[in-house]
Amino acid sequence: MARLLEHSTRLAGDRDKLTARVGMVHDVMREADYWAGASGEAVVGAAHVKQAITAQIHRSDRMREQVHEQIELGTIMIDVAGAKIGQINGLAVISLGNFAFGRPNRLTARVRMGSGNVVDIEREVELGGPLHSKGVLILASYLGAHYAPDFPLSLSASLVFEQSYSGVDGDSASAAELFALLSAIAQVPVRQNIAVTGSVNQHGEIQAIGGVNEKIEGFFDVCRALDLSGEQGVMIPASNVRHLMLRQDVVDAVASGRFHIYPIATVDEGIELLTGMETARRDDSGRYPEGSINHLVEQRLRNYAEQKRAFSSDGKAGSENEEAQG
Question: Which long-range contacts link 286-293 to residues 24+ away (Cβ below 8 Å)?
Fold first, then answer.
C-alpha cells in the first residue's frame, strides 16, 4: 500500500497530494496482482508493485533508450564534467502518452558588441513557442536593469538549444539560458556537471517549473551511463522541493553523496554555484566589487557601451570630414 501511495503521489506531481486518475492506479494494482500470482505468492507486496511500474515504463521507453544511446555514443553532445564558457546543460521533458522522461540539452550563448538585442535562434526559425520567447525577452530586461541601469545595453547575444530539431516551448530553460549568457559576457566558465532547470523573472528570482522529477532522473541516467563521478547534480527552483518524488535509485545516490540536488531561489545563488565566484552587492559608489562575477559582467557591458559610443563618434566624424572635403 505504501509503494502504491508513493506512485499515486508521483502521478499527482505533489508529495502532499494523491492523483485523482484512479484508472492509472488500478492498472498498476492489476498488474502487481498478476506478478504476485506468477511468483506463486498470495499477497501483493511492494516488490510486485515496483515490478508492475517498471514493466509499464519498459513498454513505453524505447525513445528514451535511443536518446541515451545516442548520448553515450557521442552523437548527441553532452558534457557531464569540466567547465565551459557560454555553455550549460538545460533539461527538457518529452511526453509520450502516459510516460514522460527527461533529457539534457546543451545550451550555448555567444555575445559581441551590438544594440542590446538578445536573439533567440529558436524563435527566429519558428521552432520556439510563445512561452519560450517570453522567457528570453525577460533575460534582456533583467540584464539591462541589473547590470546597465545608467548606460545603454550595447551587446548583441544569441541563444540556442544545440542539436534541437523540433519545437521548443515553456520558460523552464530561462534560468539556464541566463547563466550561459552571464558566463559568455563575463568570460567565466560554468560547471558542466550541474544541469539546470528553472524559470527566472525580471527581479532575478527563480520560479517553479513542471516535470522536476523526470528532469532530475533524466540527467542522473545520463551521468550514470557516461561517468557518475559523485560531483554531478541538478539545480532546481527551491519552490519545487515539495514536488520531489524521485526513483529509489536516485534517492539512494543522493543519500550516499554520489549525486546532488541544489535548490536555489535567486540568480545570484545559481551563478555562484556554477562558477565558484562570489556575486556580491553594489558598494556605496554603486559599483560591484572587483573579483565578483557581477563586476565582470557589468564591466564587460560598460566596455561594450563605450566601444559603441566611440565607434559611432568615429563614424560621425568621418562623415563630417567627407562633407567638408566635398
Answer: 286/150, 293/182, 293/186, 293/188
Q: Are 198 and 209 in contact (CB under 8 A)?
A: yes
∠ Cα 6 99 246 (to 5°):
35
Domains of the chain in start order, with CATH, are 2-58 (1.10.8.60), 62-275 (3.30.230.10)
Nine cell digits for residue 64? 528514451
Contact 270, 294 (CB under 8 A): no
pTM: 0.87
Looking at the annotation, which residues are catalytic?
172, 215
Burial (CB count <10 Å: 0-12, 13-18, 19+), residue 34: middle
Q: What are phi and psi of 180, to 5 degrees?
A: -65, -40
pLDDT digits (tens, 9 = 90+) for 203-230: 999 999 999 999 999 999 999 999 899 9
